[in-house]
Amino acid sequence: MDLSIPHNLARPEPQALASTIEALAARFGNRLVTSQAVRDQHAHTTTWLAAQPPDAVVMAQETADIQDVVRICASHRVPVIAFGTGTSLEGQVNAPAGGVCVDLRDMNQVLEVHAEDLDCVIQPGVTRKALNEHLRDRGLFFPIDPGADASIGGMASTRASGTNAVRYGTMRDNVLALKVVRGDGEIITTGTRAKKSSAGYDLTHLFVGAEGTLGIISELTIKLRGIPETIAAASCSFESVQGACQATILAIQTGIPVARIELLNAAQVRACNSYSKLSLPETPLLLLEFHGSENDVAEQSKNFGEIARECGGGDFTWTTRPEDRTKLWQARHDAYWAVKSLRPGSGVVATDVCVPISRLADCVAETEEDLKRLNLMSPIVGHVGDGNFHCSLLCDVDDADEMARGDDFMHRLVKRAQAMGGTCTGEHGIGQGKQKYLKAELGPEAIDAMRALKRALDPQNIFNPGKILPAS
Predict the structure, then answer these.
(1) CA dihedral in degrees (125, 148, 384, 428; nearest 10)?
(2) What is the model's pTM?
(3) Which of 44, 146, 317, 441 is 20 to 30 A from 29 via CA?
(4) Residues 6+ apart with CB under 8 A from 18
């Protein structure tokens, strides 16, 4: 597999870097860290992309810290990379040209909660689980759940989504406003707490998904939801992936307000059974969740059960017991580790594509055929309510032939999704790993427009350089 990372970046001049670190040390004292171990931690990547550590790490505690880092680095044209929890999957936190990493984990305060308006204002280092723990006593929750306990700032930067997206949308749909540190250290405010606005360019959604390449998010205003009165989790096995996908399509078309609907192919079910000590039938499986009143949830479950039977589904079981729901969804969230345990010592690369829901069954079935033809192991899970699915490819990194077949598989997966009117990534982002697919998907004119935006907002190219945009 080709692990090279294309970029045309030059590292800062040694004197410029030394002057930057000296100025940062004077400003931040022991909150500037240059030890190799800490730098390596901030190049952490859960993909096969090679780690590229920064030259230094600054532990930010407030917006003024971010501003000062940016001003110092800008004066010497030294790169700045924002870091949340490091759970991104396409090399977004790597430092291919070196530079300074701004660690935002200590900016973890919930600044305001407006329960009556269903929104809150937070710092970027607040994590998903910490926020929901803070909100629980008010009967509120933040619904975006990518699986990992990611920081909300990082989730906005990568336009994350996850298992609840079919009902609650993605980060794009749940961010009302941002405060962003721009290239000169000043603050851009992109919106207000109002639920809608027609005032000017939509700057909020320009920065959501920009992967830190246009500025650094220092504050977010996000939407909240009320915790449902009743939550039911359900599972249903199918004879085929096609039947499971058809049931999903019919459920969406008939307006059943499913909160989560996840597909696990037979290989993934076997992995979850082994790792999470479950006894699910080892055939394609849908995991679902319904939210609402007790009567609503019962009605939704009944209606889906009827659809499942029409599409060749087996026993449809559902439960409202919290411990049963937790066990089921924890097994889903542990899918990566379940796959990794199938072949200890092998490398695992998680990738995703997204297609129109009407093409989902075809895309998954053709992908499974490709895996058989190439003699590769890659269980599949999918957020099938919106046509998004993930492959976790297992390969022996010391086996050149297997790695080559893995590279072929990954390339064919993306090309297949794009040919079906889909995208090379539904939620992982572009980062470094998928730059080579962006031009084919959006066209050279769109890439030129993105480059123009990058030059306008970051003329010195200091914000997370080498990400998203292909080398020109």
Answers:
(1) 60
(2) 0.93
(3) 44
(4) none
DSSP 155-198: HHHTT---TTHHHH--HHHHEEEEEEE-TTSPEEE---SSS---
Q: What is the full per-residue pLDDT of the chain (472 aa) written as tens digits? A: 444 444 558 899 999 999 999 999 999 999 999 999 999 999 976 667 889 999 999 999 999 999 999 999 999 999 999 999 999 989 999 999 999 999 999 999 999 999 999 999 999 999 999 999 999 999 999 999 988 899 999 999 999 998 899 999 999 999 999 999 999 999 999 999 999 999 999 999 999 999 999 999 999 999 999 999 999 999 999 999 999 999 999 999 999 999 999 999 999 999 999 999 988 899 999 999 999 999 999 999 999 999 999 999 988 888 888 888 888 888 888 888 899 899 988 888 889 999 999 999 999 999 999 999 999 999 999 888 899 999 999 999 889 999 999 999 999 999 999 999 999 999 999 999 999 999 999 999 999 999 999 999 999 999 999 999 987 6
Q: Which amino acid is at 141?
A: F
And the tokens for 26? 């004077």
Q: What is the token pair recorded at 133?
A: 């723990």
Q: Which amino acid is at 286?
A: L
Question: Which helix or strand (DSSP H or E) is residue 232 part of?
Answer: strand 230-238
**321: burial class by Cβ within 10 Å (0-12, 13-18, 19+)?**
exposed
